[in-house]
Amino acid sequence: MRWIAIKLARAGITMWLVVTFVFFVLRISGDPTDTLLPDDIDEATRVFYRRLWGLDQPLLTQYLNYLAALFQGDFGISFRNNLDAFDLVMERVPKTLLLTATALFISLAIGIPLGILAALYRDSWLDRLVMSVAVFGFSMPNFFLGILLILLFSLNLRLLPSSGSGTWAHLIMPSATLGISFAAQFARYTRSSMIDVLSKPYMRTARSKGAGLARQMNKHALPNASVPIVTILGFKIGDLIGGAVITETVFAWPGIGRLLTNAVANRDLAVVQCIMILLALTMVFANAITDLIYGWIDPRVRVGAGAQQK
Amino acid sequence: MSTASVIQSRRWHPIRFLAGMPLAVIFAALFMAVMVFVMIFAKIIQPYEFDFINLLTRLSPPVPLSGSTWAHPAGTDTLGRDLMSRLLVGTQTSMLLALLGTCLGAVLGVSFGFIAAHKGGFWDEVIMGLVDFQAAMPWFIVALAVLAFLGNSIVIFVAIMALYGWESYARITRGLVLSAREQGYALAVRGLGARARWVYLRHILPNIAGPLLVQLTVNFPSTILFETSLSFLGLGIRPPLTSLGQMLGEGRDYLINAWWLAVVPGLTIFLITLSMSILGDWLRGKLDPSLED
Asked: Which of A86, A156, B84, B242 could be bridged to B74 by S-S, CB 3.0 to 4.6 A?
């Protein structure tokens, strides 16, 4: 329990750093009224908007107000269309979740079995084939892969819609685009993790006990090999989110990524700020979850952390 | 094997060295050599000025296709600009930025790693806290926001790219230094009264250079992708400058009637990342026998 409390405290500090960082980065870029209002506007209107958005106060007051507002779940109002920034973002969350979850599922469903096969038949033609395909897979920039898929399946074969969302057919290309490079990475990590585990003495013990291949895998190899893979999974959340921004732009998928690129183009401070904070929160949360799962599947982590604190 | 023959076989022998390389590695090395050549000489070998507009020769396709001319072997874009020239200059920009970003990130990360390992205690905690923070930030998203709000400046762009990935070097360096410091040679040099900085730079750094070099080859492709992704979205490198990502982003709007505008720069990016990954894997096998087992 103590171990969990320390993890949570660390996550809290990281979150505070992120929130502070976002505030200052977005504020040192200058007065938002300069970019949002027309140049020839009179000073009185400018002052009115500065007061409305709380920009007339000292930076420290603004920062404290900002923290207080965040604690109440108030992410501000979109400068563009006067809607609540949080609502604007939340409206898009299901679409992005659908895309990233499908992509993650595809990548794990392809990557892990291929990695296990490559490790079991190490140095065979199968291993070489899987690993060569994997190098291609993760070297492929997802924006380029997306464009190739559109060229092939939408413009030439006319099988799949090139943009938008709504039907399952719309989901195929974006999730494949996002998922393939991760599938390649998971195949590599799984392979090296499995190779490591297969050479361990306990595997020799299991074999010499006469355990069948299924039992060797399920009871001995896979639980141990999954530890590094879960860690990697936590690290990859950020890449997944970054990839989603690109993929959503390529396929006009109406998720958070597209909202972000539009908000960035419009310099919509509140929306950008809201997205950055929520994404960072997601990542911190995902890392904390990873740590917890890590401790759950590998009891040594729990014991080790407990022992250090005594 | 006698000591003499070990030394003999260790001597660098170009032909035996090449013969021992897999074919894919040779191709990757050749391709990267060409890319480095382009990175240095793009402005000299470009057949036209890369931003020379000629509306009379708009959308000429690349050579094997019908309607192409040898005057523009890679075709022209919507403004009649020569694609070969744009490709060369775009490659130059992308390669230079990725190289600069990777190297600055490496210097920053390695320095912080050394400081964390040397100082220990409070500073170690602070630096590792920063490493955690960096790893927890969706850096691509941060880069988007910073570039949009701080404006379009090459200096800011390079700074963001340098900050992307520094934490991996810091983490690796710290671990390597902590273990190298306790090894015989480091203890011996320190015992002889050498100053800490001398021990680190002259003795420990060369000994841990292998894994760091491998990390460099791992980071280079992701830095190229980072730059091209941002430029693709219209941030990062913007017109009148060009980079591979910027060309691809521009070409995306003409997929129906001029697919090569997007495919040619996209393919170049892919070949660069592929070559670097192949070289990196090979180097890792050479320098880090523990991973090859």
From this structure: B84
pLDDT for position B1 = 44
Per the DSSP assignment, residues forming a β-bridge with B82 are B76
The answer to whether A276 contacts B255, with C-beta atoms less than 8 Å apart, is: no
Min Cα–Cα distance to chain A from B22, Å: 13
Question: Among residues B8, B187, B196, which one has the least CA distance to residue B120?
Answer: B196
Which CA distances in Å does B133 have to A12, A181, A275, B33, B139? 11, 25, 17, 36, 10
Instruction: Give the closest residue to A257 by CA, choosing from A267, A268, A272, A277.
Output: A272
Question: Are A144 and B266 in contact (CB < 8 Å)?
Answer: yes
Check residue A108 and give its pLDDT.
92
CB pairs under 8 A between A and B: 130
Instruction: Give the pair of three-digit tokens for residue B116.
Output: 């964390």
Handedness of CA B12, B291, B25, A139 (dihedral sign): negative
Asked if the Cβ–Cβ distance from B232 to A242 is below 8 Å, we say no
Structure confidence at residue B23 as a pLDDT band (50, 70, 90): confident
Q: Of B144, B151, B225, which is closest to A264 when you measure between CB atoms?
A: B144
Indicate whether A307 pLDDT > 50. no
What is the spatial distance between Cα A246 and Cα B245, in angstroms, rounded to a whole number? 12
Determine the Cα–Cα distance for residues A211 and A199; give it in Å rounded to an integer. 16
Euclidean distance between CA atoms B70 and A6, whole angstroms: 67
Residue owning tokens 């709007």 = B253
Q: What is the dihedral of CA B126, B127, B128, B134, to 10 degrees?
A: 110
8-state DSSP, A76 = -
Strand partners, B217: none
Phi, psi values for residue A250, rounded to 5°: -65, -40
- Is A84 in a helix, a strand, or coil? strand
Measured CA angle at B155 (ends B151, B159), to 5 deg:
100
pLDDT of amino acid B103: 92
